[in-house]
Amino acid sequence: MLEFDKNTFDIASVEDELRVDEICRKLLKDFHQDLLRKGVSPLASGSLAQSADYYLRDYLVSARQQNLLEEKSGVVRRFAATWYIISTLEPTVEELTGHLNGIREFYRYLHSAGLLSEAFLALIEQECDDIRWYSERIASFWKIRDDGYLAWERECSLKEE
After folding, report:
1. Is 95 exposed, middle or buried (0-12, 13-18, 19+ CB in 10 A)?
2. DSSP, residue by residue, 4-71
3. What is the pTM assigned to this prediction?
4. What is the pLDDT of residues 23-81, one digit of tens each?
């Protein structure tokens, strides 16, 4: 695994975003190789890494400019319950479940490397496991009418609390 500290993932400028994105690419390649070493099939390893990549680089780094190692509750929840739904042409619970599986395994990988606390990993796993609620969020999104979006978004806002 690559060597870095928490501040490595701070993003304060476009240059930082590009630097962090490149570090994340390398980290994701290491994650993929680790899955293969553990005996996960190439197809499953690729799928898990691709889902972690989508979450990490598209959501955390690009859309949120958030530090990967900052232990904040709700980070996966906001991704799954709102960002994924509004950023995907045809969001489905099946696709989202695949993403959440990759996210869960990626955070387990970070924890095994000593980069995240046990308590934070437990919180992430809990957020990844809330499939029923995310399914309800997708269904309620399709039922939005007129000016109902704001009320729907407030239920799991992308704004930091």
Report:
1. middle
2. --GGGG---SHHHHHHHHHHHHHHHHHHHHHHHHTT--HHHHHHHHHHHHIIIIIIIIIIT---TT--
3. 0.93
4. 999 999 999 999 999 999 999 999 999 999 999 999 999 999 999 999 999 999 999 99
Say how many C-beta atoms besides its own lie within 10 A of residue 89's C-beta. Answer: 4
Dig out the tokens for 62 from the structure.
Answer: 């690009």
The CB density around residue 43, as the number of other CB atoms within 10 Å, is 8
User: How far is the C-alpha of 70 from the C-alpha of 11, rounded, in Å?
Assistant: 12
What is the C-alpha separation between 74 and 5, in angstroms, rounded? 22
Structure tokens belonging to residue 114: 């000593």
Q: What whole-number distance in Å separates Cα of residue 132 and Cα of residue 99?
A: 15
Report residue 129 as tokens. 């496991």
pLDDT digits (tens, 9 = 90+) for 144-160: 999 999 999 999 998 86
DSSP secondary-structure letter at 130? -
Q: Which two tokens stand for residue 151?
A: 């009320």
141: nearest Cα among 64, 102, 89: 89
Q: How far apart are alpha carbons 146 and 103 in whole angstroms?
A: 34
